[in-house]
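Hi V.,

Quick status before I head out on leave. The structure for the redesign project is tokenized and pasted below; the design run finished overnight.
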């Protein structure tokens, strides 16, 4: 019998191979956008007609191609991105297989116009079903414009298999989102049937997400940042209360490449464990940066799946980073989905803008100056962030008379009918509404305050913890703090292990205002402490901190910072049993509601409850 094996003609081989690369118009969009990015473009325009069935065009201002390269780019396995197999492990480009243009040209009408900046004249090529129809010199801007028309014109079966325009456009928009999210440093625009659907300027990552998904997204995002030796994680997760019924907004990018990974998705899901309503999915926009040698992106022809060398470590790191973010921004407590929205702003000034407490550094601050109280402050004195001169009176007032008044606040005749004007409101008073509300302290433990809907009862110890905690966190992250120097260095003795713990937290402690002159095996010598941390409290604070660390070993810098802030807040917060003056009470109420997450203490305990007039009325039926 005669030999029957023969080589397929190129155009047939190309058509078959095209099936792998190009399933639908969105695949063309992906390949062309990625080529533009690989070419170093800073501005990329995508033009679509009929959901890409008639036209997909990408115009970029990247490096362009020479005349020869323009022709070669349509050959199978023609790529400028790798030269040998080893390069596969050092990839920092999107493409590398050199198949996309060859495949696309096999199944569509393609027009390429391209010019390099160094050349005066560019080149144009038209090609259909792998046949070059023309190649000529033309005048064209720097960069590349590729138009892909009449997709699958020569494979009717494939063309008939395409879904409705709505579905195909959805796929295109998904690809556009993925690419645009991975590259906020590139400006993108997209036109669909002649009208502009996206215009995304160069921006930071949060802004890019907001520009794509709408302004409302901004408030939903919780930042995630973790930098370890094997992995850098940055990006955002969506707050649990905004979780969606569909899995739409879930994005992993590894070294700027969108990937799908059920395994890593599971890591996120487990970080949200217990926080989501059943049947909903958290959103995330996370960038993972890893050494390219530790991943293999070659296992999938369209490259949305990759293989990691050490998936288990990635899983653990990712899960803990997301958990810490959710914890640090105190998302967990907002899990009461049925909660009354009016609780968010307990006073009746929802329309007014809150005065964000500013961090202002008084560079002339001199702890040795006479008028600055250098004497040991009272244990409960607030660690304050606001050093504006005019404000000092109010924070100092907060603690006036702490020792003198003990249990005289249960005198109801004194309080019941009293109305006081609030001066230290956290809200702007622009609208001239005179604000009156009353607070009083119950059993030296709770502060009761009137609010429009009824009343609010606040736990003073937990509320103050929340206030201090957010202040400390801010200081540690901003790395700007106020230290008061001690006249004589404070020497504290610890075990070797304890000193080791202090060493790991030294940087963060310094960010809050501590200064160490030496940290030996068993001796800690302190020359400065945060302003308003009394010297007498220092050893208690450090001991508390050490025991907190021992009980909850932080596995990342993130949680160590958080733990330090929590621990110090716990040590310094006003205790249950302390009586507070009226203005101290009001100040605390205002401070609490200036916090990001006033509803709970740093350890997720409720800080206040409210009772509406309606509820009270019911009790009097
Ligand atoms: P790959 O991207 O895998 O290398 P492609 O078929 O997508 O393969 O592209 C082939 C080659 O054509 C690329 O390696 C690149 O050199 C060149 N090329 C494609 N698109 C562009 C573009 N927009 N700007 C500059 N060069 C391009
Ligand atoms: Mg490519």
């Amino acid at each position: 019998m005669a030999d029957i094996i023969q080589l397929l003609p190129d155009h047939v081989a190309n058509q078959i191979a095209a099936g792998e690369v190009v399933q639908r118009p969105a695949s063309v969009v992906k390949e062309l956008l990625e080529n533009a990015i690989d070419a170093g473009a800073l501005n990329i325009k995508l033009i679509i007609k009929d959901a890409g069935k008639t036209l997909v065009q990408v115009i970029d201002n990247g490096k362009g191609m020479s005349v020869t390269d323009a022709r070669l780019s349509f050959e199978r396995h023609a790529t400028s991105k790798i030269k040998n197999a080893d390069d596969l492990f050092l990839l920092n480009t999107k493409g590398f297989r050199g198949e996309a243009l060859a495949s696309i040209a096999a199944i569509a009408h393609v027009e390429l116009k391209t010019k390099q900046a160094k050349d005066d004249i560019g080149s144009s090529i038209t090609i259909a079903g792998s046949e070059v129809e023309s190649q000529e010199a033309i005048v064209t801007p720097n960069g590349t414009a590729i138009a892909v028309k009449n997709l699958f014109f020569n494979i009717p079966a494939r063309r008939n298999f395409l879904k409705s325009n709505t579905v195909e456009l959805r796929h295109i928009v998904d690809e556009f989102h993925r690419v645009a999210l991975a590259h906020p440093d590139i400006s993108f625009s997209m036109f669909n049937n002649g009208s502009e659907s996206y215009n995304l300027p160069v921006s930071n990552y949060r802004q890019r997400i907001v520009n794509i998904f709408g302004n409302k997204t901004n408030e939903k995002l919780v930042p995630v940042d973790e930098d370890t030796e094997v992995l850098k994680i940055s990006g955002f997760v969506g707050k649990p209360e905004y979780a969606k019924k569909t899995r739409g907004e879930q994005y992993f990018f590894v070294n700027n490449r969108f990937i799908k990974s059920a395994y890593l998705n599971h890591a996120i899901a487990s970080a949200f464990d217990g926080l989501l309503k059943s049947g909903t999915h958290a959103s995330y926009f996370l960038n993972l940066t890893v050494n390219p040698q530790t991943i293999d992106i070659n296992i999938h022809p369209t490259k949305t799946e990759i293989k990691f060398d050490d998936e288990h470590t990635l899983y653990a790191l990712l899960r803990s980073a997301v958990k810490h973010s959710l914890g640090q921004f105190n998302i967990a407590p907002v899990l009461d989905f049925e909660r009354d929205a009016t609780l968010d702003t307990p006073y009746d000034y929802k329309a007014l803008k809150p005065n964000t407490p500013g961090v202002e550094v008084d560079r002339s601050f001199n702890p040795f100056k006479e008028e600055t109280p250098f004497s040991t402050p009272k244990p409960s004195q607030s660690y304050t962030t606001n050093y504006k001169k005019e404000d000092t009176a109010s924070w100092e007032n907060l603690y006036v008379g702490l020792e003198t008044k003990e249990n005289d606040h249960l005198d109801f005749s004194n309080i019941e009918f009293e109305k006081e004007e609030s001066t230290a409101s956290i809200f702007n008073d622009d609208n001239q509404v005179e604000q009156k509300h009353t607070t009083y302290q119950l059993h030296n433990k709770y502060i009761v305050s009137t609010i429009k809907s009824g009343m609010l009862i606040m736990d003073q110890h937990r509320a103050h913890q929340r206030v201090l905690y957010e202040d400390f966190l801010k200081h540690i992250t901003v790395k700007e703090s106020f230290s008061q120097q001690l006249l004589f260095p404070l020497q504290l003795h610890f075990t070797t292990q304890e000193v080791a713990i202090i060493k790991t937290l030294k940087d963060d402690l310094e960010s809050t205002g501590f200064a160490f002159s030496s940290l030996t095996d068993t001796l800690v010598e302190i020359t400065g402490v945060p302003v308003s941390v009394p010297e007498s409290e220092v050893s208690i604070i450090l001991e508390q901190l050490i025991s907190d660390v021992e009980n909850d070993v932080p596995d990342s810098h993130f949680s160590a910072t958080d733990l330090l802030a929590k621990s110090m807040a716990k040590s310094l917060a006003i205790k249950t049993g302390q009586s507070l003056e009226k203005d101290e009470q009001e100040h605390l109420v205002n401070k609490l509601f200036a916090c990001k997450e006033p509803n709970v203490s740093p350890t997720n305990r409720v800080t206040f409850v409210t009772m509406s007039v309606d509820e009270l009325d019911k009790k009097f039926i």
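Above is the designed sequence. Residues 600 and 606 are 4 Å apart (CA to CA).

G. will cover questions while I'm gone.

Best,
W.
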